[in-house]
Amino acid sequence: MSNARLDALNLAGDLPGVLLDAKRLAASAPGVHGRRRAGQGEDFWQYRDHRAEDGARLVDWRRSARGDRFFVREREREAAQTAWFWIDPDAGFNWTSDPQRPTKLHRARTIALATAILLSRGGERIGALGQPPRAGARAVDRLAIDLTAPMREAEAPSNSCIVFFSDFYAPVATWRERLLNCARAGASGALVMIADPAEEDFPFRGRTLFQAPGRGGEVLIGRAEAAQTSYTERLAAQRRDIRALGAELGFPALLHRTDHSASPALSLLLAFVSERYG
Predict the structure, then answer these.
(1) Could you give the maximum distance between any two Cα atoms of the chain, in Å?
(2) Distance CA 135, CA 15 (A)
(3) Which of 21, 231, 237, 248 could form a disulfide with 110 if both were Cys (CB 3.0 to 4.6 A apart)?
(4) Would you say 195 and 132 are in contact if contact means Cβ atoms under 8 Å apart?
């Protein structure tokens, strides 16, 4: 059995916990109303006053007969949009500095699925980038399964909303190419930076062995505290460049630490997505 298949099975075993966390998180968030508005759909939306340009054909005579005004029966426009999710497949993303805390991957999937729950309730479609879009009562469950598969580069759907979850440690040039491809397709969305507190605070002291998860590389530093300033400066520069790139191409960025509540990150992400839908 391939390593990719084994990784997928391991992630799938975590699905019940992730879905439960996502449902709890979604329950604490404000509602999402989607893009309901008048249009050419089949479902009734609301009555409004008749206007001269409507003509007699659009008058709802049954409703109008109840009073002395003419009413038009409006239907809901069928304009659901798909929110696509991409979660960094790098082995270093499935990491935590404390076994009592979720990995960056677990938290990313929790926020992604909580966002999907709320968008789905608002009438939107949801999907993992590179997989079919989902809608209906089982959409979130199917999306959760799709998010366990190793994610690869995929063509951005035209004029779509795409949310990227990563620690964004890959070179800025890699992200520029990825987001440029999205922008060329008319796509925009959001960047969700997930960080472990050890990566943010660099609490290491003395002789420390640093190992790259899943890659086998390692670096031994005799006095780790001596590297703190340089590390902090490089991390800040990387974040500035990613934020600037996202702002330039229509992907505003937010930063979330796994030792903090996910609710503020979810609320801000929903605001970004709602602005894209507007």
Answers:
(1) 87
(2) 19
(3) 21
(4) no
Tokens of 13: 């075993």
Best CA proximity match to 24, nearest among 108, 103, 118: 118
> According to CATH, what is the number of the domain 3-34+80-277?
3.40.50
DSSP assignment letter at 52:
G
Give the model confidence (pLDDT) of 163-185 as tens digits: 999 999 999 999 999 999 999 99
Domain range annotation of the chain: 3-34+80-277, 44-75
How confident is the model over 200-243, as pLDDT tens digits?
998 888 887 777 776 667 777 778 787 788 889 999 999 999 99
Q: First vs last Cα of the chain: how many Å apart?
A: 46
Cα separation values, 45 from 42, 72, 76, 123, 219, Å: 9, 11, 5, 13, 62
Instruction: List all residues 6 or more positions away from 175 whose beta carbon is below 8 Å from its beta carbon.
Output: 168, 242, 245
Angle at which helix 15-27 crosses helix 263-277, to 10 degrees, equals 80
